[in-house]
Amino acid sequence: MPTRRSLFAVVAIITLVAPAPALAQDKSIVVASTTSTQDSGLFGHILPLFKAKTGIDVKVVAQGTGQALDTGRRGDADVLFVHAKAQEEKFVADGFGVKRYPVMYNDFVLIGPKSDPAGIKGMTDVAEALKAIKSKGAPFISRGDRSGTHIAELDLWKAAGIDIGKEKGPWYKEIGQGMGAALNTASAANAYVLADRGTWLSFKNRGDLDILVAGDKRLFNQYGVMLVNPEKHPHVKKALGQAFIDWLVSPEGQKAIADYKINGQELFFPNANAPGA
Amino acid sequence: MRAPVTDLPIVLDDVSFSAGGVTILEHISLALVAGSPTVLIGPNGAGKTTLLRLVMGLIPPARGRVTWGGREQAASTHRAIVFQRPTMLRRSAAGNVRYALAAAGVPRTRRAASAVELCALVGLTGLERRPARKLSGGEQQRLALARALAKEPQILLLDEPTASLDPAATKAIEDVIRKVAASGIKVVMSTHDLGEAKRLAGEIVLVHRGRVIESGPAETFFSAPKTEEARRFSAGELLV
C-alpha cells in the first residue's frame, strides 16, 4: 500500500512535469482568407497537415479579399492569405503587412448555362465574352463583395471597355456573398458567373452550368500570404504566424497544396519560387 | 461617415424549410436585388407564402442561409409584409395608419399629417374617418399597404395582394404597387394571376412543389421560357 509520503512524491512529480494550464501557450493563429480557399476544400486538406507538424491550430476567417484586408488593418488576424496582388502590395507598403510571399495560383473560369444565350462557349478572349453577355443582357451573378474574385471580375469588365458600375442593368446581380452562394444563385437562375476553378471543381449543385470560357491569361489568379505587422498591432502572434507562412512556401507546404486534388484534378498550383509572382 | 444600412441584396443560399415533417421548400437559391418588382408565381401550395416569410425573416430556414445586405441577423426594420387577408384594427382607417406610424417611431406631432398623406398615397382620401372594418376588401388591402409604408421600408413583401378582389379593386392595388416600386422600394410579391405578373413583374420566379423551377427577367420568362413547367404555366395549364 503506498505511503502518504510516496503519494505526495508522485503528486509533486506529476505537478512538476505536467504544464500548468495557466502557463500553457495558446498555439493558435487567426488567418483571414478568401472563401475560395475554404469552399474549395484546400484548407480542409492542408491545415491538418500543418497542425500535425507544428501543433499550431489555424482558425480561418473566410471572407472576401477586401474584407480580409480590412480585418488585417484592424489587427483582427495574424496572417492574411488572399488573391489580389496589387492590394496586397499596397497593404505592405502602407505598413499593415510585413512582407508578401507568393504561394500558389489557379485560374478563374467563366461559368454559364449550357444553353449559352450569349454564345460565348469556347471563346478564348474573356473580354469579348463579357461584351457578348452584356449585349445580350444575359443574367450574370457578381460576387459584389470586394473579394479577389469580385476585383478580378471588375478588372475584366474594364478590359472589355465596359464601366459595369454605370452600364449594368437588371441582368447583372451583385449578391455580396462568397463563391459558394454565388454559384448556387447562378445555378438556380441559369446565369453566368466568374468563379475560381478550385471552388467550381468542388461545387456539387451545378444544375445546367458548365465552364464556357477558360485559358485567357487575364484569368490567372495568384494567391499571396502576409504576416500582419506586429509594429502596428503588438498582439499579433508573430512567431506562430511566420511559422505558417514559412511552412506554406516550404517544399513540404507546396507539396501539400499540389497534392490536393478533386477527381484526380489539381486545384491549386504552388509557385512560391516563381519570379514576379 | 458610414454607409447607410441596407437589407439588399437579400440572398437565399440553398435554403430549405420543413414544418410538421413536411418539406415545404428545398434547395432555394435566390438573390433579390434593388430594382423592379420580383413576382413569385406558381400554383397554390407551391411554397410562395413560406418563401415570403423566409425573406421577411419571420421564420428561420431549416438548412441554408438567408442574408440581408450581407448580414445573417438583420432586424426587420427595413422590411414590411402585407398578408393576403390583413387584420384591421378596431379604429378608423387613419387610426390604423397612425398606429403603424407610432410603431415605426414617428413622433406623435407628425402622425396625423403622415396618416393623411399615406391614405392619399393609396387612394383612401375621404375615407380616413371610416371604421376600417367597414371598408371594402380592396380598400382594406390599400389600408394595409398604407400601414406597411408607414415604416418607410426598403423592401415591401406582398402575399397575393389582389386575391379575391374585383377588377377595379385589383387595378387600384396594382397602381399603388407601381407607385411604390417607382419610388425605389423593392417590391417582392406573390400571385397566381399570370396577367398580374405580366403587368407588374420585372423579374419572375416560378415556384412549384417547393422548388424554384425557373427565374429571370419577366420578358424572357414569358417570351422564351426555358423549362417545361414554365412553358405550361405560362400557357395557363395546371401544374400538379
Task: Describe what you observe in this structure.
The complex is a heterodimer of chains A (277) and B (240). Chain A is α/β, with parallel strands linked by helices and 277 residues long. In chain A, helix 6 packs across helix 7 (148-159) and helix 11 (238-249) crosses helix 12 (251-259). Chain A contains twelve helices and twelve strands. In chain A, strand 10 (261-262) and strand 11 (265-266) form a beta hairpin. Chain A starts with a helix and ends in a 7-residue tail after the last strand. Residues 11-24 of chain A have low confidence and may be disordered. By secondary structure, chain B is of the alpha/beta class. Chain B has helices at 48-56, 93-103, 108-121, 137-149, 167-182, 194-200, 218-223, 228-234, and strands at 10-19, 22-32, 38-41, 63-68, 79-82, 155-159, 186-191, 203-208, 211-217. Chain B has a six-stranded mixed β-sheet with strand order 5-6-7-3-8-9, sandwiched between helices. In chain B, helix 5 (167-182) links the parallel strand 6 and strand 7 (186-191). The termini of chain B are far apart. The mean pLDDT of chain B is 92. Chain A binds chain B through residues 115, 137, 139, 141, 144-145, 170-171, 173-177, 180-181, 184-185, 187-190, 205, and chain B through 9, 11, 13-14, 27-31, 33, 35-36, 65, 67, 69-70, 202-203, 212, 214-217, 226.
Name the strands of the widest sheet of chain B in spatial order.
5-6-7-3-8-9
Largest beta-sheet characterization of chain A: 10 strands, mixed
Strand-residue fraction of chain A?
15-25%
If you average the pLDDT of chain A, what whole number results? 90
Termini separation of chain B (Å)? 53 Å
User: Poorly predicted ranges of chain A (pLDDT <50, ≥5 residues)?
Assistant: 11-24
What is the helix tally of chain A? 12
Under CATH, the topology of the domain at 10-87 and 153-234 in chain B is which?
A: Rossmann fold
